[in-house]
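[audit] Reproducing an earlier prediction to check determinism. Same input, same settings, fresh worker. If the tokens differ from the archived copy the diff job will pick it up downstream; this log only records the rerun itself.
[audit] input (111 residues):
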Amino acid sequence: MIARPDEDEALAELDHLLALSAADDRSRLLAGIDPNVAMMRVGAGQPRVGTNGGTLAGLVGSYDQVAERIAAFAAAGIELFMLQFQPLEAEVARFGAEVIPRVRALTLSAA
């Protein structure tokens, strides 16, 4: 999950994290993964940050965009999100302060 005040800032952070992950040799981590696993097929060729699909869920954008996406998942019946944050403490604080209140407002208004 990468949320910033506006989409351009979020995409710039995504680019930064993609550059960092491209510099990391992950071949040893991927060596034991079955390439036929659905997650690997769905995400093949897609740039992403994180494990287990990482940013493929589309949780990259402005605070409002990310909150709207989470609310849409919730409306579809998704009750649990396993999110990653980099760096952990700063991004968890940002998520709690900026995204969660927006998600709550959206899901309350939908109910």
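[audit] rerun output stored. Observation attached for the diff report: The longest helix spans residues 88-110.
[audit] end
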